[in-house]
Amino acid sequence: MSEPFKSFDALKSAYDALAGQPRAGSSDKDSHETAIRDFVEAAAQAGAFIEDPNQRRSAQDMLDYWFTHLLASSDAEMDVVSPRLADYRPVAEMPKGAAEPSAKTESQSDLERSRQIIRLGALARQWRYNDEAKGYLLKGAALEDAKQYSQEDRDIAALVAASEREERKSKNTWITALAVVAILLAVLAGIAILQARTATAQAKLAKEQMIRAEQNYTLAQEEKARADAAAKLALEEQKRADAAALALTQEQKNRAEEQRAEAEAQRRAAEAAAKASDEARLNAEKLAEQAKADTEALSKRFAELQKQQVVLDAAIEVIRKQLQSGELQRSELPEAIAELIKPDAVVDVFSDPSILEGYKSGFLGVDVALPALSETNRPLAFDGGRSLNYLNYSIVLNQQRRMAFYSAVNLDRDQLRVLPGRPFPSYPSKPDPRIPREVQLLPAWFVNPAFDVGHLAWRSEISWGQVLPAVPNTAAQILNDSLYVFTNITPQFDTFNQGIWAALDRWTLTKHNPDARQVTIFTGPVFATDDPVFNGVSIPRAFWKVVVSATPNYSQSAGPSSYVVDAFLISQFKPGTIEKVDLVRSFDPETYRVPVAEIESLTGLRFAEIIESTDRNRLPVIGETIGDVMASRVGLLDAPDAPQRKEVAQELVSALRDGAMVWSEQQKVISALLAMAQDTSVQKLSATGRLNLLFVLSQVPASTWDNAQAVDLKATARDAVAVLESRAAAGSTEIGAQTREHLARLETNIGYGKKSTQTVYLQFTGLTRNAAIEISSRMQQLGWNIPGEERVKEGANEVRFNPAVEADEEAAELLAADLRALGRTAVTAKGNKRIKSGNLEIYLSD
User: What's this model's pTM, rounded to 2 decimal places?
Assistant: First the structure.
């Protein structure tokens, strides 16, 4: 009796040694059969020492294989059944010195099955010995019967597989059609990329034309304003000339006629300028609409490109499976498809630092540093917060939670490529070999079917760059190996990952600042001590994303005109529960938009200054209005950066001149401008700052200043202008020609220096005469007709008028406001029927 094998490894070694012996000839046939019999007997008894189910199945396969060989090689008829492994019996349960357990055999009912295995095994070996000739292959019912024995013998399994392949060859016509479809999809993808780039160039050209039209419109408006002022002066000159016409000589009359003709020409020029201004505005609107349409078309093409990527990946995956099963031969594929799936040399991305260059802070042309960790978070970070670099992105890892604090991605929309892909789970994530395994998450975290593998950096965001080779399959392998790593994934509910989060990724790729070609994306979870636990794993309640890019400047000045920041926060749990959110496939940015400061507060991160400042200027804090935000930007009219000054000036003018805001919001902005115009503030401004301030104030229409609700603002503006003119007259403040033009327009709009039709009488008590004269002089500077000052005994702080005269009432309200702006804050307008029509009476007292 042969000594049993005491372990699976011993059994496997004996099996391999027996299989390695040369085929037995006639002279040593008996010895070969004896070796096989000894192996079968020892292998059957080995079952008592093999506990693992997988090893027992493998051991039974080895036993069946050599038993079949034994029966097939025997000259005599044998009526036996194949032996079975002995039941496992731990060594501790075997009595000392007990006989080794014997193998079990099947009952008589299994005899026919054994015979079938022997018959088919012999046929399979004849097929192999005859160079796998097709004449031995099975068909129809014989093939179906043989399939049930494929697991019993490797040769039978090979014969069945070859028979199936031969039978399917006649059914492969559709494979060729599928290959043709895949080729067409690849061609369409290339065309879509070309069209997208063409649309981008067209959008840039339209943007440049729109900006030039806006500049022409502004110049036309300025020319019209100058023409209006000149026409007004000419008309006043004409009136004076007409009044003195009777006393003029003929020569003087001729000169007056020339002046009238010149005034008429200036009036016509002003009308032409106004017409040109309107045409420029209409052209600008048309160009803006065209630019918007081009941008929408570009976004649509990006979406089509994504759909084609999905179809192409699916087609390639089907072809790969057909190749692996033998249903399709690589030689049968068209050249274009074979190029996509040919087995290229595998690149080890983790050993080549030129591939994993990671996130670049200067990618946008301005320094956008990685978010800084707080003092609380830094001890939890792997390697002190050192970033781990991958293809076009980097990770900062939280080694305590074994997930990333955040990912930082550089996206270049112009260089994006469509590559064959094997998305998870067919391309499973792997550990990063550069860092310890114990600081990375475990695959067991995803055994719960409710959880998906959520990627922070997205495949479509990093699929670009010169580092990716031209061969698609090699480029895809580099891309996938850099993306599908444990450091880049987090547990996300399936409804969240496949729904709103995927929709946000798509929105980021195409809808965030569509004019921008380069985009930087930060993404991460919100960690909390009370995060819910599933299967022993703490699951983040929410995830955030911060996206930043530069808006191209299509004017002749260098550098970007502005930056755009979008920040979003989305929970994967229903509010107040630990239930996963519903599946939502559309994304509304305003629903999930939050200030960057809120994300900083939740995560302990600190983003770059360019992100914080841009976001502060874009989004109001809770309780703020658009008027508050714009009022806070007034100081930037004197900013050191010229493009920023220009941007703010244009924003303010558009809001105030075109009535884009309701009065309550306009009031906040105008108040901020006037505070900047006060003497103590305006003297601190640079000459450029004063120019910008007066330009914006001059664009506020006269109708806004004449609003009864704006009377105090109008008076404040008149007082500020009076002080500025006094300083200019004294030589302490220099006013350039362009600044003077803006100042003149502002004075016209607020009625500064315009002679009043009312006569004003000033009475005072409790003041010195010099103080009263000083007040009277300031009022006269504003345009009030005050013949003198009179001391009286009656004490009051009023401007009295006849309430029956509407013009007198309006003048009294403005006069009272002018006095309040001068510091006489208690003065009010009060009707008095005894006041003569056309007269106003001021009563002041201390």
Answer: 0.42
